[in-house]
Fold this protein.
Amino acid sequence: MWSAPFVPWASVLAGWAAVGALLYGLGCLVTRWLGPDRDEPVGPLVRFWLGWAAALGILQLWHFALPVDGRVYLVLAPLGALGLFGHRAALLENARRAVTTARGALGAAAVAVVAACAAALALRRPCNPDSCLYHIATIRWFEQQPIVPGLGHLHLRLAFNHAYYLYASLFDTGPLRGHGEHLANGLLLLGILGPACLVLLSLVDLRRSHANSSYLALALAGVMVDLLFGCNLASPTADVAVATTGAILILLAIGPTIDGVQLTPFRLRAIGVIAIAAVIAKPAAIIVAAPFALYSAAEALRGETARGTWRRTASVLAIAAGALVVPWLARGAVLSGYPLFPSEIGDLRLPWRLAAGVGHRELLYERAFARMRADADFTTDYPWVRHWLALEWLENREFLIPAATLLVAGSLAAVLALRQRRQLPMARSATAVGSALVVWWALAPDPRFAIPMIWCAASLAVLFALELAPWKTLSAPRAARLLLVLAVYGGAFAEPWKISLSFVEDFEPPGPEGAVEGRVGAGERIRVSQGCCVDPTGGRGDLAKIYLRRPADLSSGFCSGAGCNR
């Protein structure tokens, strides 16, 4: 009945546990390399995402020689185990607390419940239209072949250089082979929601003071619940990586500012590494990564410690950029002939490059789609702002609620600040959010690229207002913060009829597939997509002018035009 060895949702949990532990172990190694101070706390959130960044770097290099199949664990597993062994004392202490203390047991139980529900939701059909178009096919190519020159000839979007799909290919192996697309985004979401469960248990104690960053972290995690219930949990879209890394970078960059502490050199290095990884995972992440990385650098240089260690920080980030960006650029050149495709900057005149002008047209289309949220005539200028607002004001969670909250709470905070003639040092964080919103609006004003940032702006306005408001008791502002954060979570359950949770279902396949048999220029058989094709050999459009660079050898790559394979 089931293609997985256990009950399917339990198989998903096992896959997440194995890969999650591996990434956490890699993160422990990277954390040691980045060099935090002895007394500087480094939570599981930072370690997990540093491990994810390291995995992308390793997978990029691996894929130049071999497919991303089960053999890659021969490299990743020993490294992950080494990192876990080096961090064993803290792990054993956390395990002891989970067994011997009430709060530890409740935290472990909360994480387990969230993970189990996410596993059941991940069994649903990958319903993002682009999953049938190219997401799943990209994963199949990566796990069956080393990187293929000119792959974009077969299908333009197979040339998109998103390192996220290397990570997603990790799950499509062993007993979960053929179902890996269901697992990739769930682990990224749990990388935020898991720590959020532990933070929530501490915030309910109103007798204790809590950092503003804890409330912000919980609010941004609440926005991730929308993704958990949405279409993209089971669909391997890199947009979830953009959202989750965006939330992490926001927390790491402005957390110290709103808490009134100095941003440390280690945190700056961690932000730099995760920001670079986010951009190579999907370049749209630069909308959040660049402004917040620059802001964190400016904040760190305000302190003497960071100024005294800037040489080491610069060298660490240079090494990280070289390890992540250089292979990424090389991958872009192999897939399309252009290192920064769809941009045609840096045309290397490689024999398998896509035709000139194809990438530029794709850039125009992507920009028009971000503005219009639909196909548009992108060859001419058009009045898009009114159309955009007409669409987005109806999107409660994506735009209307956070925008209204920002307007009301921001106005209240401004009035209170003027009346009290008081300046909030934490208000410096607004410059990072404002700059990122401007970049987003100018480059690609699609809410899927800025959901954490939009909610961050609203959350900061609320925190500013609550910080300035007069309170008679210490517990009152803490209760107000907690209730408002819980309201963010409640909004995700506003339409419960859309939430279907079952622990007895099997993996629901994508599709239905729509493809026919076709041939490329030299006569080799290939599948031609007619709507949904997850077969790695699936092409799109007129393939008669496309040739294999070596007859009958898919790994040799593709080129266009008669004689290109001679």
